[in-house]
Amino acid sequence: CIVKIPLTKMKTMQEAIREKQLLEDFLDEQPHSLSQHSDPDKK
Amino acid sequence: FSSHQLKNFQNAVYFGTITIGTPPQEFQVNFDTGSSDLWVPSVDCQSPSCSKHKRFDPQKSTTFQPLNQKIELVYGSGSMKGVLGSDTIQIGNLVIVNQIFGLSQNQSSGVLEQVPYDGILGLAYPSLAIQGTTPVFDNLKNREVISEPVFAFYLSSRPENISTVMFGGVDHTYHKGKLQWIPVTQARFWQVAMSSMTMNGNVVGCSQGCQAVVDTGTSLLVGPTHLVTDILKLINPNPILNDEQMLSCDAINSLPTLLLTINGIVYPVPPDYYIQRFSERICFISFQGGTEILKNLGTSETWILGDVFLRLYFSVYDRGNNRIGLAPAA
Questions:
Q1: What's the pLDDT at A6?
Q2: What 3-state DSSP class applies to A37?
Q3: Nearest to B184 by CA among B321, B328, B24, B3
């Protein structure tokens, strides 16, 4: 007599994977961009 | 890249299918133990939040009856305004005729706009429902559509369709060990008394005893902001991305287990459950402040045990005996 309803788990934003990759790219680039900031010509 | 965006990524939600009307119109709903009303968007709703979701068309249902009573419902994630109506609801093979439900005509943007479900099906007590309405589970119980007045949740970490809500009984293959029963302290929310919260032997919350609301509609572990701030400082002294909830995943192995004591039983929540992996290197701490706004629960301190806790512990909601059963999920 038990009625089971399957539930779907999902992230709220479909772009999560795309954004995750963007974030990783951002962190990879960040150290370089910080060092470049010390050079006023490249700001 | 704002930290606000990152927080949204981790709000995993669970939803299932119901139908409303004759012939049936299908909707995805969040089965929410933290509220008591059922609502779905109406075809009249022009909010951007509604346009992204399935909308109920009363004119296409031969069993719909309008009630012309205006309603407004406010959730942690947003709000809706609309009207009440009544129609046949079907959940799996459970059928309720003349179930009163809300039809939203105006919905807030933000979380309700982004979530993949259309509406909410509340499973808390009738005292929390719109006055004069009977919640879905009370109709299932009172009209003897189900044999036992219980329902239960198994929430899996995996995205496949293996998470389940069950009505009318408990399938014990979903949990390990014996169910531990905890009396409900106030028949409104699914609310129990908690006696302590510790980490590494330190009391991190609930020092004078507190109330814990078991809520499938909340993603994280939510508590008073000042206590959550202290917990985040304790477990994350070196936050990244200027966000106290973000930490390097390398830190997970050194983090303490959270111990919740409820009705004399200790419920451990290890770091790999309260920390969610956002990417290979970035992790997210699933604690959030904000329960200080819940001042009417008969206590000065309230915690909400959301999906983070419920993925670890299979939960049974027993309306016949006003108690919650918890056991480690299988």
A1: 87
A2: helix
A3: B321
The partner residue sitting opposite B92, judged by closest CB among A5, A10, A23, is: A5
Give ipTM to 2 decimals: 0.82
Residues of B within 8 A of A10 (CB-CB) are: 12-13, 15, 116, 159
Closest Cα partner for B103 from B78, B131, B142, B73? B73
Catalytic residue annotation of B: 32, 215
pLDDT of residue B242: 76
For residues A6-10, average pLDDT: 81
| Contact (CB, 8 A) for B304 and B206 | no
DSSP B69-87: EEEEEEETTEEEEEEEEEE
Which H or E run includes B231?
helix B225-235
Instruction: Return d(Cα B217, Cα B245) in angstroms, integer.
Output: 21
In angstroms, what separates the C-alpha of B104 from chain A's closest C-alpha? 20
Cβ-nearest to B168 among A2, A7, A8: A2
Looking at CA atoms only, how far is residue B127 from chain A in angstroms?
Answer: 25
Q: A29 in contact with B at a CB cutoff of 8 Å?
A: no
The 10s digit of each residue's pLDDT in B212-253 is 999 999 989 999 999 999 999 999 988 887 788 888 888 888
Instruction: Return the SS3 of B319.
Output: coil
Q: How far apart are CA B207 and CA B205, in angstroms?
A: 5
- For residue B37, what are its two tokens? 């009303």
Compute the average pLDDT of residues B48-73.
Answer: 94
Shortest Cα–Cα distance, B4 to chain A (Å): 13
pLDDT confidence of residue A19: 53
DSSP state of B321: T
The least confident of B98-107, B190-199, B273-282, B319-328 is B273-282
B280: its two tokens = 């290979």
Question: How would you class B154 by CB atoms within 10 Å of its CB: exposed for 0-12, middle for 13-18, buried for 19 or more?
Answer: buried
Please state which of the ranges B75-84, B193-202, B236-245 shows the lowest mean pLDDT.
B236-245
How do residues B87-97 score in pLDDT, each as one tens digit?
999 999 999 99
d(CA B15, CA B163) in angstroms, rounded, equals 9
